[in-house]
Amino acid sequence: MRVAFTAVPDSHLPSVDELLSIAVSALGGSERQGQVTMVQAVQQAIDDEKHVAVQAGTGTGKSLAYLVPSIRHAMDSDSPVVISTATIALQRQLVDRDLPRLSEALAKELPHEPTFAILKGRRNYLCRYKATAGWPEEDEQDQLFDPREVSATGRMVQRIQEWADETETGDRDELVPGVSEQAWRQFSVSAQECLGASRCPSGPECFAELARQRAGEVDVVVTNHALLAIDAMGDLPVLPEHEVVVVDEAHELVDRVTSVVTAELSEASVMLAVRRVGRLIEQPLADQLMEAGEDLKALLAAAPPGRIDEMPQVLGLTLQLVRDTAWRCVSALGPRNADKDDPDKAGQRKAAFTALDDVHDTAVRMLEAYGHDSETDRAEVVWLDGGTDRRPPALRVAPLSVSGMLRDKLFGERTVVLTSATLALGGTFDALAAQWGLGDGGKDWHGLDVGSPFDHPRAGILYVAKHLPQPGRDGLPQQYLDEIAELIEAAGGRTLGLFSSMRAAKAATEALRERLDVPLLCQGDDSTMLLVKQFAEDEPTCLFGTLSLWQGVDVPGPSLRLVIIDRVPFPRPDDPLTSARQRHVAAKGGNGFMAVAANHAALLLAQGVGRLLRSQDDKGVIAVLDPRLATARYSGFLLGSLPPFWRTTDPAIPRAALKRLAAEGT
């Protein structure tokens, strides 16, 4: 049941402009034109039942701009609005700060104080039934050979057990410090493994079900892109019924959805199925599945990692053996609802079915990825991940595009608002719209850039080191290290170094620590959160790192005056999925490089550049060491994806600007 109230006709509700004005005044802010434009655009999209993509630069106040019309729609329609984010940090910001303050500010203007809740995937909640059933047999083997790991995991398990007696939500994120996946999985179940609230002895007090119940009673449900995809594409709804979705951090949507629908097959996944089916079927049949898993293990250990364009005969036969043996085990288990009156046996059977279905269905997908007449008919790509010392090799399969899924399952059923600081690549929304499946049937949509409150040409310099050699594959050239050192010395530290690989970040750190007089931190020295905190609190400190820093750092003020980017962040040429997508686009007559690699680079480059200006008083320099940003034929596209900073290729200009800022102490 949702919160009961008497529905107020639309004409009796304040307009979004009025609500925004009230909210901004109550929260002590000032009106920003971009925010006003965005709130009107979101309301118009909801009224017209048309999708809208809104690019809103840092400082626009986009959270408020979509929350106000979302709350108004929830009040007017008695239907919740779903807000989806890519990161836990933004979820927490919405639930812990933005929504409580906004709800209080608008309470007197609306039929009731707006309500909200956060909803995550089932694996994020402690399973009360599993917590009382002891350590699952199938996981013991994971720890037999490393006593230190057993000890560390055991301590985490003990901490979870103590926390389980105290927690009111069962939400894993409440556990601080966090615990390993190995420890947490002893206390959680996937949606496929869950017995269901009606059959589980702990059903009435299930944390995941209580979270879903709360989500069904509120005006705004905050979730993540993965759960949004599972809800849209699954057979059973996970989220409460809703008409409107707001996708924040929408530049991440395609990658997060792709992760959800990517499947993996390895000797470990087959052996998990063998252990779970255990004594539930005749031993000779379980042994056959184990032998199929051993054959797969031997084959993957000998094969070279990378994309598999044509199915080798031996791999095809091995996948058929895994598929058929897993299916025989499924058949041997009998009816899926057997033992429904015995929770322990029902839980064992559900876990066995889940593991077997995963193995069988993934093998089927991989076999069906081949045999097409032409490259344009191919829908999925299969590759071998070579693994690491701690992770064995695994086969993976992923779709070449998720646009059709999104068009049919997400955009076809509801009104969607997509927003981010970075959506217009090369100056248009076309690239991301194509990846989302917009414009190809379905509802109408339009893109809108509401700008930024920052005066980019006055606040920042975009310097491209045109005189440097192009980056190579053999690490950072000495000229790059010299350039980095001179820029940092001019800035007096205060530098965020964004590198295309962890190897490059570590190499730069090692080479420059002795050379520079300022503290130099590198991602991996400690938790990223603590490193960013230390960087923000000590002005001379520099921080070097890779991908998570490109998008996850928010350090306003004088601690950050220089952002260094070592190279244009193209995907690796040997990345199986992106290279397959490039080839697929080219086979259809398109430009695979521009549609995939350049779009990827533009998106990440814009995110990295966006680290510099985080507040109205921020100033500084972005230094891109890769000369291709000034000289390559695609440089105009990349530059057109960035904010309008003042641009230069003269090395003296950024150094002089940084020295002035350092001398002024700003």
User: How many structural domains?
Assistant: 4
CATH topology category name of the largest domain: Rossmann fold
Provide the CATH top-level class of the largest domain.
Alpha Beta
In which range does the helix fraction lie?
40-55%
- In angstroms, what is the radius of gyration? 27 Å
The count of DSSP E runs of length 2 or more, i.e. the number of strands, is 18
Walk across the major sheet and give the strand order: 3-4-2-5-10-1-11
The CATH architecture of the largest domain would be 3-Layer(aba) Sandwich
The CATH superfamily of the largest domain appears as: P-loop containing nucleotide triphosphate hydrolases
Low-confidence stretches: 1-10, 134-148
Q: Structural class from helices and strands?
A: alpha/beta
Q: Give the helix tally.
A: 27
Largest sheet: 7 strands, parallel
Organism: Nonomuraea solani
Cofactor: [4Fe-4S] cluster
Catalytic activity: ATP + H2O = ADP + phosphate + H(+)
EC number: 5.6.2.3
Walk me through the structure.
By secondary structure, the chain is of the alpha/beta class. The protein has four domains: 33-115 and 218-258 and 403-449, Rossmann fold; 122-207, no CATH class; 267-392, no CATH class; 456-664, 3-Layer(aba) Sandwich (Rossmann fold), CATH 3.40.50. The chain is built from 27 helices and 18 strands. The strands form three sheets. Strands 3-4-2-5-10-1-11 form a seven-stranded parallel β-sheet, with helices on both faces. The protein has a seven-stranded parallel β-sheet with strand order 14-15-13-16-17-12-18, sandwiched between helices. A four-stranded antiparallel β-sheet has the order 6-9-8-7, sandwiched between helices. The longest helix has 26 residues, at 343-368. It is globular.
